[in-house]
Fold:
Amino acid sequence: MVSDPMIAKFFLLPHINKLSKRYLVTLICNMEYQSDYLESLHEDISLIHIGICREIEPIKDIQALIRLLYHLKIAHYDFLYSITPKAGLLAMISSKVSNVPYRVHTFTGQVWVNSSGVKKYILMNMDRIIAILASYILIDSPSQRDFLINKNIVGSEKSNVLGVGSITGIDVNRFKQNLNERKFNRKKLKIDDSMIIVLFLGRLKREKGVFELIRAFKNLSKRMKNLKLIIAGPDEENIQPALELELMSRKSDVYFYPYVKKPEELFNIADIFCLPSFREGFGNVIIEAAAYGIPSIASRIYGLTDAIVDQETGILVKAGSIDELEKAIFYLANNVQERNRLGSNARIRVNQEFKESELTEKFSDFVDGYLD
Structure:
């Protein structure tokens, strides 16, 4: 169960398809969102639409919970798995009330980390409720698990991480550098081979550090004429106009892509990946970039400290520090040898620790442990 088909595609698709070979699998999600994300779903998998909203909307949330309770009562599932906060809360409440024997949720980052006051208290306790009602908790990074244990959200005896982190890992056969594609895509975008491309790929939200990235880039582009920035991902907070206003005369040096169906096309042309977030669960997009041999620059926060080995596969900077971000981009943009060293190390690490096939096998074994 997820709120959004996009979540299923990018984080669960290989797991779902593998499980469908042994079990009857149903995917519950809000089909009002972009359902074309589910085109690669195995044909034997059932789809159930329930209007789970991403944000807190009390009336719609109660309606979704009622529909879930009714559906679970008649479906008689043996195992229910959820990710994302809203889907997790509704899933764990409804499955516990409906006596679903096994209930597992994966934490992928905490929305309350940068909140305060009553909002933070409510959101923290929503996560505690999920953890209490679940049979078991999976967490997508070791540092996030340590954080949740220290905050008394989960217990050490009832939680774990698959492998060394990530939910689904990386399909190393799909995500890999292709020099011919690199030349073709750069030519299509009219980007010269001498240009250094900095890539951000993710949801456009303030907590992703996109304003800090824009400001660092604007400072750099005044003295580096061969630097370009690509910002790709859905504008969930309608902040692109404000970002463009920040750029002013440097606007022509930045490319915005609101919808990316094939992220590999952008990875193939990039030289440096940036994710200066204030909150992340793991940062799977960093190991996607790593599979292409692209070094990453990211915030030194839990989750991202598992995706990057500082000074070995990328560079970690203080969250919110435009100065540190600017210096890191400048350093890698002007040091091709260091870019190659970090990128090569990153690619090796992905192949050793984050292969999709191995994480899917671990997840399948985990489910089998309950249902066999």
The chain has a mean pLDDT of 93. Residues 179-353 form a domain with the Rossmann fold fold (CATH 3.40.50.2000). The two ends are 21 Å apart (CA to CA). The first strand starts at residue 26 and ends at 29.
